[in-house]
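Q: Can someone sanity-check these two? First one:
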Amino acid sequence: PGSRDAALVARVAAGVHMVAAMPARGASRGPLLVDVYDTTAGGGALGNLSARARVAGGGSELIAGFVIRGNAAATVLIRAVGPTLSVFGLAESLRVPRLTLMAGASAIASNAGWATAPNASEIRASAAASGAFALSGAAADSALLVTLPPGAYTAIIAPPDGGAGVALVELYEVR
């Protein structure tokens, strides 16, 4: 009560949906948090989440939090897309998006160049099976394919070289 936060509960049909969140007219800009919850009985209908934002070093990282719930581990594909965004006409993409996966205050995995990951072929196959667009093997987009126990996690996208640009963070549950 009394806050200026916004909330929406909606029943949506299967398919692709987008939430556009921005400061209200006249409001100052700053960090913005968007939460999405599947409130259906049993949950699990949410297949992919993504967010796009301008990224720079020094506190302007793109941060995506997610929770694995239940009692079983889940395999997730997390992607930090920068250079491949130019294929979609976005000229100001982040040249090198470094992806770091956190569990609490601990970094548990990191990648800056998915094609050089030891499991690059599994990343490519999981992306295709999940319906994700293909990443260029020559581009510096980043990705992690990890199996995680239940808990809260954070994916942080930042430029390792001090650059700036637009990045997309994507999260897919791999089944």
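And here is the second, same format, sequence then tokens:
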Amino acid sequence: EVDSIGFEGNNEQPENPDKPYIPNANGHEYVDLGLPSGTLWATMNVGATSAVDYGYYFCWGETTPRTTTYKVSDYKLYEGESLDCNHFDIDIFAEGIKKYSEKDKKTVLEYEDDAARANWGGDWRMPTSKELEELVMNCIIDNIQKNGKEYYRFTSIKNNQSIILPMSGAYFCDSQDGIGEEGLYWSSEIYDDSELNGYLSYVFSSSMQMGEGTPEEYILGYGDGMPMPRVYAQSVRAVLPSKKVHTI
């Protein structure tokens, strides 16, 4: 029943033969960690210029980077009364969320609201909570130091390839949280047990001591298992779908 067979290859050669070739998509490099799903992980954060750069900070569901100071009421997916950062009312904010809530029953970001897709294009997107879990389950995680700063290195138990996640922390209004101390990275899903109209979202957190806890605890957020409020501005590490080749 096969009417055609196509062959596709990559004949690109590195400019410097002595330098290892690193594959890229839309100009952004990625690593194949040999994960069961075949998911490919970017080598740096969206907006970063190196693997150890924090990159841009985004509120969940926004595609424009946040500066280190911003207003909660300016959140793209919020529609309601003005909120002061110093007197932030969670219930009022949750009620004003107009997308990805009990109102529309959507739980996964559409590409128009995906910071990775909007900024990098192509097939890039933010990872799902399952992909974050897969990364944790299939990598050895350890601390490394570069230029006096600490980072987390995820080394695949499948093929020994690795990526670095800087401890980029987060911003909230005009304050910072955990910058240089923990890595906080958005997933593309809201926390499905949230009773606050999708106010909370899945996140990867490296704040726990490595080697302790379960993958679920890493993925939900802080060591106490709490997901992150979507109005926090955090880093994004993009992924690509599998590029596995099936040989007949």
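A (reply): Looked at the second one. Residues 30 and 42 are 4 Å apart (CA to CA). Confidence is low (pLDDT under 50) at residues 207-211, 221-225.
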